[in-house]
Amino acid sequence: MFDIQTKIELKKGNPEAFKEVFRLLYPRLKSYGKLFISNHSQVEDLIQETFITLWNKKESIKTDKTIESYVFVILRNKCLNFLKKQKLENDRVDIENLNIEELQFLYQLDFAEKEEKSLEEQLIESFKVAINELPDKMKLVFTLCKIEGKKQKEIAEELGISIKMVEKHISKAKQQIHDKLIRQYPALIVLIALLLE
Asked: Which residue has the higher pLDDT, 143 or 191?
């Protein structure tokens, strides 16, 4: 999602690159955090902590790895640590809506070999492959809307097509990407839905 230049600028400590990463990832991180914790303000606090950690560890960013998966792993670890702490303090955990299989996938990442890619990296790579397999026009519309964050009206004007056609392309793209990812990661249906949100 982020090009190498953005990663380099982020690593250098460029505030504009940092703002761009925050702007594009924040909505997805919010949905992802809610998989673990239902308290909206707590999720927002953990996302803020995630970006503070990203800023503090910016020098360790690897330009050959995805920023997205790095940030999602930081948030996942912060959520799991919060839940562990909550369990120790209150002897209760706020996981009423979590699917056990999904949690097991998330916990297994801590035990993966260093050479292995994290589940987040695998999912994001598969997501990119699925986008690249879309028909050209559909791929362009989906990328402009969901990756670059442009409004549907703006895309329609830019490409000279109707808003209904933009909606149709996005809907079909989401369905095709969803179907491909569900075949690869059937236990992660909730995460896939959030990725396509």
From this structure: 143
pLDDT value at residue 42:
92
- How many beta carbons lie within 10 A of that of residue 47, not counting itself? 22
pTM greater than 0.70 (yes/no): no
Q: Number of C-alpha atoms within 13 angstroms, CB side, residue 139?
A: 10
Quick one: which of 139, 130, 143, 132 has its CA closest to 183?
130
What are the structure tokens assigned to 188, written together? 């992660």
Cβ atoms of 105 and 187 closer than 8 Å: yes
Please state the rounded mean pLDDT for residues 13-38.
Answer: 87
Q: Mention every residue, 6+ apart, whose C-beta is less than 8 A from residue 78.
A: 46, 49, 50, 53
Cα dihedral sign, 166-179-189-107? negative
Tokens 């992660």, residue located: 188
Residue 148, pLDDT > 50, answer yes
Ranked by mean pLDDT, which of 22-31, 84-93, 100-109, 129-138 comes out on top? 129-138
Q: Measured between alpha carbons, how far is 47 from 75 in angstroms, rounded to an integer? A: 6
Long-range contacts of the stretch 120-123 (C-beta < 8 A, 24+): 120/68, 120/69, 120/72, 120/73, 120/76, 121/65, 121/66, 121/69, 123/181, 123/185, 123/188, 123/191, 123/192, 123/195
